[in-house]
Write a structure and sequence with these properties.
Length: about 375
């Protein structure tokens, strides 16, 4: 058996200060070690864990992802359209269930038999983690070299590989602030809803040159790019639903930097569980804005279910202590101006469907956009 704490020590030496993940019984030793050292971020979904790790990477920190192979499918979207697209290398330790289907439960049989092939298809380099401590150490070093080539890496962990770890408990973070009374959505003043373009224009102006603006998939990013391309913008382009987790990773890695996440109603609803982690770790420098046009505007305006929903109530229920809806653009601007990194906040604004014409598309290659954004976050550009 392998000592999970020895692996953890080696990871720390390689610069890994954090883990994010969803548990697997095969990984209990390593997860309990991570939990015991207080460096484990509880994700609701493996894809969210990948996005958190990607955000940390952008901010110059290292976060390893821990998951079960059954969660690989949950992570396919960020693996294919975030980390691969932007050449953000992620190290994952993946519990390997179903390697011997006859000895495991039926739900692991198919995933167990396709795990290596799936990792190959995802262009994630992988190794079966050895039970020999010296070989395992070399495997991790090789993985680290692979990460330096911007290739994501996975270490597959068989059942029983890690020695058990006693008594690791982590109390999930609890916010000190009391739960606020519910807010009924403010009455809208008469007149047309603001257009996304107007909202983005106002937010860019408020952002100045120090605030990171992280835009969700689709036309939000395209409008932001067309309106004002700037080094502090990150256009996530793919991995729909991951922008809050990505922003969480960035904000945790760069606590001095204001980070504003620009989300859509469809995107928010796609990965609502991510809000629980954002709210639990609650970086004070993160502002989460939802531009709610009630549609999937980017794919042709098909309706989302948001008009019938209370997204602010959902954010509160998932742990956001400060969440409210702005009645119009002026009020949103006022709230953003008053935010000043005084704590995680969630702002919701109903906007008109539709987008600007002509609408551009980021023409910087994603890896170059990433490099520019990382220099911005590091204060180098
Ligand atoms: C996982 C995934 N599913 C679907 C899509 C296709 N898609 C791209 S943008 C988008 C709509 C996003 O809706 P919303 O977040 O409300 O933003 P809006 O388009 O209204 O600005 C969809 C469905 C995708 N890129 N990724």
């Amino acid at each position: 058996v392998l000592s999970a704490s020895a692996l953890d020590t080696q990871l720390v030496e390689l610069g890994y200060r954090h883990y994010a993940g969803v548990p697997c019984s095969s990984m209990k030793g390593l997860i309990d070690t991570a939990i015991g050292t207080g460096r484990y971020l509880i994700a609701s979904n493996e894809g969210d864990a990948v996005a958190i790790a990607a955000g940390m990477y952008l901010g110059g920190a290292r976060c390893a992802v821990l998951m079960q192979n059954s969660g690989l499918t949950n992570a396919c979207s960020p693996f294919t359209s975030l980390t691969h697209t932007f050449e953000i290398p992620v190290l994952s330790c993946i519990g390997y269930r179903g390697e011997q289907p006859e000895r495991d439960e039926p739900q692991h049989a198919l995933m167990g038999s396709v795990t290596p092939a799936l990792l190959d298809l995802l262009q994630i380099e992988w190794a079966l983690l050895s039970s020999d401590p010296e070989e395992a150490r070399l495997q991790l070093l090789r993985a680290h070299e692979g990460l330096a080539r911007h290739r994501s890496q996975a270490l597959l962990v068989r059942e029983g590989l890690f020695e058990p770890v006693a008594g690791a408990v982590q109390t999930p973070p609890v916010q000190a602030d009391p739960v606020p009374p519910p807010q009924t959505e403010p009455a809208r003043r008469p007149g047309p809803l603001p257009r996304r373009l107007e909202v983005l224009r106002a937010l860019v102006e408020l952002a100045g040159d120090q605030t990171a603006l992280v835009a969700t998939t689709g036309k939000t990013g395209r409008e932001l790019y067309t309106l004002a391309d700037r080094p502090g913008n990150f256009y996530m382009i793919g991995s729909m639903g991951c922008v809050a987790s990505l922003g969480l990773g960035i904000a945790l890695a760069r606590p001095e930097r204001p980070v504003v996440v620009l989300d859509g109603d469809g995107s928010l609803l796609m990965r609502l569980g991510a809000l629980a982690s954002v709210a639990a770790y609650a970086p004070r420098n993160l502002l989460h804005i939802v531009l709610d046009n009630g549609t999937h505007d980017s794919t042709g305006g098909q309706p989302t279910l948001s008009p019938a929903l209370d997204l602010v109530g959902a954010a509160r229920a998932l742990g956001y202590r400060r969440a409210r809806s702005a009645s119009d653009l002026d009020e949103l601007v006022e709230l953003v101006r008053g935010w000043q990194m005084h704590g995680l906040a969630f702002l919701h604004l109903r906007i008109a469907p539709g987008s600007m014409h002509p609408l551009g598309r980021p023409d910087v290659r994603p890896p170059e956009q990433k490099a520019r954004f990382m220099r911005f976050l590091a204060g180098e550009g």
